């Protein structure tokens, strides 16, 4: 059993915050709610796959979208899932975070979106984690916002790319750009659900209303099956009153949509970027790794997987 849960007699797991002994003793997490009891994730069902597509979305930059995409993906792989990460940010941070040099890419997600006759297998790259692949990006993708404007059914461009990959993976995570432009709308149109990483800071909180409004418009006009899977607090520092107040405000506003797992600030996350691997392999026994394993269990429980 890793640090993110305690075994129960029925084989289920009680999640707890690995950094907070008081919360552990009271079975209360940092969100102020009792930790749920979740069963250990079962292996994926045999037979034909149909991936759940999850957009990791927040128009504010620096809230932990890329870190969460990489580490949630790696934690899902540990449960036996096959995962594809899609870098839909022209900055290419997800690609860099997994050891891909964006400057040497001959083909990227840009070529799949706007190129003709490009084979997706020529673009998919492996990662340091067996069972997790990546569709990388680089600065070329910045031109896609302009070029897509004149395309027919421009909001469905990414959907066509990912639909051909659904039967290869159990989960596809899309790391969105920090904007609400056409690339992000493409991600929301292709996705089955949205996870919103939210830095526990006031300015990050302000933008959530605009994001939820955009999600509602996509649901109404383009993708009625889209749902908000949950919000996850990131960069949380329980030592500061401000972080605790922001997290409590989010819970008050969104209730059970907020994941119980909260990602705390730690120096390990910047180190993993330099190492080009997720925290689950770089510092497997760290509280950060435990938090993402906890989040993975919550995600699977909400997906019914």
UniProtKB/TrEMBL annotation:
<feature type="region of interest" description="Disordered">
    <location>
        <begin position="1"/>
        <end position="47"/>
    </location>
</feature>
<feature type="domain" description="AAA">
    <location>
        <begin position="52"/>
        <end position="228"/>
    </location>
</feature>
<dbReference type="InterPro" id="IPR025669">
    <property type="entry name" value="AAA_dom"/>
</dbReference>
<feature type="compositionally biased region" description="Pro residues">
    <location>
        <begin position="36"/>
        <end position="46"/>
    </location>
</feature>
<dbReference type="InterPro" id="IPR027417">
    <property type="entry name" value="P-loop_NTPase"/>
</dbReference>
<comment type="function">
    <text>May play a role in septum formation.</text>
</comment>
<protein>
    <submittedName>
        <fullName>Chromosome partitioning protein</fullName>
    </submittedName>
</protein>
<dbReference type="Pfam" id="PF13614">
    <property type="entry name" value="AAA_31"/>
</dbReference>
<dbReference type="InterPro" id="IPR050678">
    <property type="entry name" value="DNA_Partitioning_ATPase"/>
</dbReference>
<comment type="similarity">
    <text>Belongs to the ParA family.</text>
</comment>
